[in-house]
């Protein structure tokens, strides 16, 4: 269920207050921030990296970074945008590591199911729009998004699955809104081509 503007304003005020407490040395404020944001960040990372275990590790690291960087947070910033920027950077670093260690990465992905990542979608990672898709089509969508170049995948995950505005996605990705719109356009064209058999079915 989506929250209205009033709910969003209240959450933003609570975030700013907790960050001020955190800066002032009240470490317990981090617990309150995690209570509100741990689940959304985990699901974002899960959709980005496609692996619950890695997403959980990266989500924890994101809050470690929040604590370490608490002094750089500006009260005029939206905390969730700042947090998702940290999470997106961690996901990028994760993909760079995987590209340099492909054998280790594939082994880790296949460890639990015996299947490569593109063959399975962890139950906790399915996007809401995927819930209506059945079996093979579900895997095809997930695998196709996973195949997108990093910049296009980020735009799709943030704007289509996380339902972030183009402006907020641009802030998270350190890009212009026009650049995000261009990435979405390119991603949709690629996905339509890759998923043509399913769209025609």
How would you characterize this protein structure?
This protein is mainly alpha-helical and about 200 residues long. The chain has ten helices and no strands. The protein has helices at about 5-25, 30-50, 50-70, 80-100, 100-110, 135-145, 150-160, 165-175, 175-195, 195-200. It is elongated and about 55 Å long. The protein starts with a helix and ends with a helix.
Helical percentage: over 70%
- The fraction of residues in strands falls at under 5%
Rg from C-alpha positions? 18 Å
Q: How many individual domains?
A: 2
Structural class: mainly alpha
**From the structure provided, what is the oligomeric state, counting identical versus distinct chains?**
single chain
In CATH, the architecture of the largest domain is Orthogonal Bundle
Would you count the extended β strands for me?
0
What is the number of helices? 10
- Give the overall shape, derived from the CA principal axes: elongated
Strand count, sense and barrel status of the largest sheet are: none
Could you tell me the mean pLDDT? Answer: 81
CATH topology of the largest domain: Rna Polymerase Sigma Factor, Chain: A
Low-confidence stretches: 103-124
Compute the separation of the termini in Å.
Answer: 31 Å
CATH H-level name of the largest domain... which superfamily? RNA polymerase sigma factor, region 2, helix turn helix motif
Helix-strand sequence: HHHHHHHHHH
- The level 1 CATH classification of the largest domain is Mainly Alpha
């Amino acid at each position: 269920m989506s929250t209205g503007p009033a709910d969003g304003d209240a959450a933003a005020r609570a975030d700013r207050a907790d960050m001020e407490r955190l800066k002032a040395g009240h470490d317990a404020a981090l617990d309150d921030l995690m209570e509100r944001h741990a689940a959304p960040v985990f699901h974002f990372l899960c959709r980005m990296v496609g692996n619950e275990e890695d997403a959980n590790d990266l989500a924890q690291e994101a809050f470690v970074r929040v604590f370490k960087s608490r002094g750089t947070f500006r009260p005029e910033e939206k905390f969730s945008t700042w947090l998702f920027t940290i999470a997106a950077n961690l996901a990028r670093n994760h993909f760079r590591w995987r590209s340099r260690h492909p054998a280790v990465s594939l082994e880790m992905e296949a460890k639990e199911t015996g299947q490569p990542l593109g063959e399975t979608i962890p139950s906790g990672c399915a996007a809401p729009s995927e819930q209506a898709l059945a079996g093979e089509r579900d895997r095809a969508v997930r695998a196709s998004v996973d195949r997108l170049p990093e910049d296009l995948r980020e735009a799709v995950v943030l704007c289509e699955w996380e339902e972030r505005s183009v402006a907020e996605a641009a802030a998270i990705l350190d890009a212009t809104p026009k650049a995000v719109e261009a990435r979405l356009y390119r991603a949709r064209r690629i996905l339509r081509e890759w998923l043509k058999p399913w769209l025609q079915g």
